[in-house]
Amino acid sequence: MVPQIRVARPPAEGRVKSQLLPRYWPRITDQELQQISGDSNSTIVPLFEKVLSASDAGRIGRLVLPKACAEAYFPPISQPEGLPLRIQDVKGKEWIFQFRFWPNNNSRMYVLEGVTPCIQSMQLQAGDTVTFSRMDPEGKLLMGFRKASNSIAMQSLKGSADPHLNALSKHLNSATGDFSWHATEKHVGKARDGSLPPSMLGPERKRSRNIGSKSKRLLIDIQDALELKLTWEEAQDMLRPPPSIKPSIVTIEDHEFEEYEEPPVFGKRSIFTARSSGEQEQWVQCDSCSKWRRLPANILLPPKWTCPDNVWDQSRCSCSAPDELSPRELEILLRLYKDFKKRKIATSHKPAQEHEPAGLDALANAATLGDNISDPSATSIATTTKHPRHRPGCSCIVCIQPPSGKGKHKPTCTCNVCMTVKRRFKTLMMRKKKRQSEREAEIAQRNQYIWGPRDDVEVDSTTKLGTSLLDPSENEARLGNELQSNVQSNNMSNNLAETGKGQIDLNCHPNGPNREEDSRPGSARVSMMSLLQVASLPLEMYLKRNGLTSLISEQQASSGSHVMPQTTGESEGQPHEDHCIAPVVEEQASGGDEELSGPDQSQNDPS
DNA sequence: ACTGTGCATGTGTTA
DNA sequence: AACACATGCACAGTG
């Protein structure tokens, strides 16, 4: 891309820059400049930028300007009333803001008033960045923005002249494939720690400063928020319902929710798998020797777990006992798990269509967010309008009480707020149902796609095998799809796999007589069965179907190797009752994760 | 009751 | 210690 503009960067007047705090230094990319300037031949002078605070992005419509920036780049004002300032946005639209100041101690506090329409037009929120530039020689002020959400950040990165950033951008793309907001956070976070020069690290830590103090301002720098969220989601992996506490069932609007009296407890992260019998089990890694051990699914593990704790398998209760899985199998399992996680995260971050908070949080969200509930980024950063310190989803007394601030609501309360919340909840549930049916249809279609190439396996396994060995990711990706479908089906049918109520005929080939019906969008019930079949396939069948027969032979050769002790002796192709490495859910067996509203439900719902 | 406005205050950052 | 700034808060205006 050859910019048609001349850019005086960075930034503007070095003289002034030295007076600005680094956090206001403009980091506008060429692409952004190009965007701002359009086809103009003018010189764009990046002036400064500011990460929007909650109050900047709030309804008040006042954007606090850094004093030094205001005094350096905006016209001098002597009266508090200031003067109207004409600023052009990236779309070429001109906005007129009141540029003024408030006396503050012996100083001034500069603000731009009336920015709400502009902020809304750009769909900005706290954590996003607004950039100010000047077009010379006209001196026209320009306003750009950079969304804190990574999708936009990615665009910025892609367009960056900085090879570092371009490389990072490519890396992010390749690393995440189908771009995952969340996955990228991790990379970005990682990059922040290491590879990026400080000047490119985005907003500094400034904004996290107030947290933890007496008057806690829950204002989290977007980067910190991302890291926190990530940590939270990682933590979610380890959260389990309290082992001895039985949830009570609460019915709200004909929907049942599990309510736990005790908060979730921490357990060790494990991978849950299902056997073809429907029995679930979990794989856990020893903290001492790092070997993976198979345990019953219903075991709550302590945060730290080692082989000697393995009282369920005496042959593997010591670190000296060999791995049950071969390295290749382990790799596949882990990659499937990783892929599943990635997809789950991506799914959970999809706007509204895929994700909805449940239970009280949903109500709280509904109460505080209204239609904004469909905007995940909004829920992650923006404060509620009700109580600036609180975030959407906050169900504290302040946020759930009526505007008048008097008293709590009873279940039978019919006040406007309660009725609105209830209506909203109904709408949400209807939407959820609708989405669920859409999702099922989608799964059915995907299923059709999945099964399609399988014919090739049957017809020409050698060719497929060659391809597979060269590019195992393809197979794994397919497995991942199945896995995802499997998880979804698991969510929807709840313990179907466990109870075997689905009456799955494992001998029924997916391409069998029912296939036509299976693949029809809308015949979700049948497709669910197919998916469950996939979920329940023995490892050998997985391997075979995906061209990894060499692994089977390797496994057989090495085992008596303990790969699958119980499977030896069974004829190939016959469904095994045990050891289906189909990571169904990584949550406890108790959970269709979207179905719960107790402490456990939040496992998949960090918001 | 709600909204807008102006100022005050508390806290983190910088010199 | 001084400064910058995010936001709390009181008060006035409006519906």
State the secondary-structure class.
alpha+beta
Spans where pLDDT lies below 50 across 5 or more residues:
1-18, 150-233, 348-410, 448-607
Taking all Cα atoms into account, the compactness measure Rg is 28 Å
Strand order of the largest sheet: 1-2-7-8-4-5-6-3
| pLDDT averaged over residues | 54
Q: What would you say the CATH architecture of the domain at 6-146 is?
A: Beta Barrel
The helix content, as a percent range, equals 25-40%
CATH topology of the domain at 6-146: At1g16640 B3 domain
Question: How many β strands by DSSP?
Answer: 16
Number of discrete helical segments: 21
CATH superfamily of the domain at 6-146: DNA-binding pseudobarrel domain
Domain TF-B3: 48-149
Protein name: CW-type domain-containing protein
Biased composition (Low complexity): 486-495
Domain CW-type: 277-327
